[in-house]
């Protein structure tokens, strides 16, 4: 089973992701804001196979979560996908500078998400 942390403040998105990435192959933990995401990462000792995060959220944005994940264990980094409505070039470039592994624009295309998730999990 692959453990995924989904950080998303839109209440519909976790339901969509749960259908795209079903159990038992994927266990998706959901955090509804950046603060909750940071807590889940710490409570679970960063034992996630992948983090999928939105950029614009309350308390801590996706870039802060990305930075925290990437600086935690540089020898065994957790892959991170940023998913956002905000698709401007500056945000995408900032994400890649901070070490994001992939970037998806909303609305998510299910087949594209599955391919990208599987690719990153195979690398890990």
TrEMBL record:
It comes from the Bacteria. InterPro entries: Bact_response_regulator, CheY-like_superfamily, Sig_transdc_resp-reg_receiver. Keywords: Phosphoprotein, Two-component regulatory system. Gene3D superfamilies: 3.40.50.2300. Residues 3-121 form the Response regulatory domain. SUPFAM superfamilies: CheY-like. GO terms for biological process: phosphorelay signal transduction system. This is Response regulator receiver domain-containing protein.
